Every structure is written in C-alpha cells, then in structure tokens.
Amino acid sequence: MNRIIVITFLLAISISSCLEPYEVDISNYEDLLVVDALITDEVKNHRVYLTRSVPNLDTEPSVESGALVMITDETGKEEVLTEIEPGVYETDQLQFIARVGGTYTLTIRTSNGNTYQSEPCTIVPKSSINKVHYKKGKEWNADETEEFEGIHILVDGTASEDTYVRWLYDEDWKFKVPYPVLMDYNYQTQDWEYIKIENEYCWKSYDSNQVLIHSFSNQENPTIKNREVCFVPSEVTDKLTVRYSVLVRQLSISKQEYEFWNKLKISTEDVGDVFGSQPFSITGNIQNTNDAKEPVLGYFQTGSVASERLYINRQEIADIELPIRSYKEGCRVDSFKADGLSYSSALEIYETLVVSGPYNLHDAIYSDMSMAVIGLLLAPPPCSDCTVTGNPQKPDFWED
Asked: pTM for the complete prediction?
C-alpha cells in the first residue's frame, strides 16, 4: 500500500462523504495515525509502516517513531517488531512465520501513550497462479488524450468458490546509459587512458499501489483467465529498453478485507463527481482501544500468496513489432575542442567542465594527423552514469 496515496484517498473519502454522517470528529485530520501493514504466509521480514496524515500530497507525512508494535497469534504468542528506520517496523523471519489458518492481531502503542489494535485477522487458504504472460495492445493515458502501444501483463489461475483475491505486482527493469565514462586523465602519467566501464547498466523498481481485486463469491467455476494486472507502454518508458521483470503476487484475502478495498476503490473513483455514486464512509479494522471514535487510517492486511515472476527482453518486444523507446532518449553528447580561443588544451576542457563542471567525460576527440587528443566528448551525468537515476546493485532474484 503506497502510504501517501492511502493518506490522500482516505482523507478525501472522510471529508467528502455525503451519505449518512460518519460519526467521527476529523477536525484534526492533519494528525491521524496511518497504518500500512501486510502480513502474509511468505517467508520474509514483514513490515509495518506508521505515519501521520497530511492534508495534501504537497506535504511530506511525518513518521510515527518510537512505537511498540506487536503481532499476536491466536495462541497468545507475541512477535515484537524492530524499528529498522524511523516509522518502519519489521518482523524477524527466523522468529515469525505466518501460516494459513492462523489468526493475527496487530497492536501499536505510540510514544504518546495511545494504544491501537486491529481486529483479529485469519489467513485464508491460497489460490493458485498457473501462468503470468503478456500480449500486445493499446491503452489510453490517464486523461484519455493519447493512446499508447505496449503490453498488457496478464495472469491465469484458479481459486475456490467464495474466494476473494487481490493482486499486487512489483516491477524491476535493467536499463543502460548511452554515453558511459570511457576514459580519464591520469595526472601521474600526464596522459589520457581508457578505463574499465562502470555504471553503464543499472536497475529501477516500482511497487504497485493499484486496487486490483475480484470476488469469486457464488461462482461455480472460479477460474482466473487473462486478468490484467498492469500495462507497460513500450515507447514512453525505459522499462523495456533492455530487460524487464514483473512479479505478480495473488493474495487470497478475507471477505471483510475485500469489502474494504472495494469500497475504497469505488469511493476514490467517484470523489469529485457530485452526480456519481455517493462515497462510502470507510473505516478500517484498527481502532484506538480507549477512544473508538478516533479515526485510524489504513488496514491491517493479511493473506496467503501465490506468486510468479515474468522476464521480458527487448528483443521479444521488437519481435511483436512494438515501438521501443531509444535508450538515448533525452540524452546528448557535446563536443568541445581545444581551438586556442575558448580552451587552449583538452586538459583545460577536462578541468573546467568535468572536474569543476557539470559534465562527465565520455570519450576523446583525436587529431586525424597525429592522433593527439584535441578535444573531448562530454555528457550530462544522467546520460553517462546510471547511478544518477538507478541502482547499480543487481537485485538478488535477477536472472540475465
């Protein structure tokens, strides 16, 4: 759950509700506790994020640090989470493994003495993913002013009757810069030398925040077929320029959690349209144990997970004849020569524009006659050093 989006969505719902009055005082809505917690049967360190609400996206939410955060199962066994950074609390995967059929309760004691507790949540049996695949297609942008070509990421699977499903997806992609640093000046030898290329390839990532849910209630054939989880435009993003990966996680959730997400989805779609469906007054499953009227934003989420990862190479996109964004898009390399006017030597160019300036050195310009360095090819850092916009560390799961 994206924390800024949750804060904004739930405040919009609370403030704009036009049905029967939501009997809580939100006059102090700029300082409500926001809880983002998802516990699954995956063997991993689960995290709980605590922040304080803000009125709009222009304000950075403050974190709720110094809290005591616990998860208790139906037997009374407690797991106390560790605050690994301000407002971020984490379980220990060696000590806490949630299980299907287990019932868990989240308790939060903030530094100001308030105690918040969730309803007990049971992890329901998981559904299955048979395949994650893609197909060529088109989709309009958010304001429907332009249509883009790209790929639809689809999932096939099965569930049981009366199952409720939510999909999450995590994207990672490898990209390259067009003008990496190829050479440098060696002051010891007083000469130019080619060096090992570094920071040419990096990775970026994106975690979904969309509400993708489905109910199999009263369905005799609960089959998941070609369910779209996301769309990737091929020409307006660098996601498909080298190699792309998407991890689709299919969560089986409770009916109560499904209803929460469904109301949230409907309400946020209709906010701003006074003639549309009226927004719901949405409450989560967490409350102040001493003041039930205090709004708490967010939801203690639980679920069993089936997941599958898909990799797509640039050539696969080219094979289905989709336009692909050039990795040189928005980049340039500038040529500077030692002409005796602006610069007297290549070294002066280097010291002025690279050592003390805004450029990185890409390559040299050589004299046709003597092969002496008479100038330099320089590029802005975002076009020559992938760490400016990405992470040079290959993800642990990555397969080339």
From this structure: 0.86
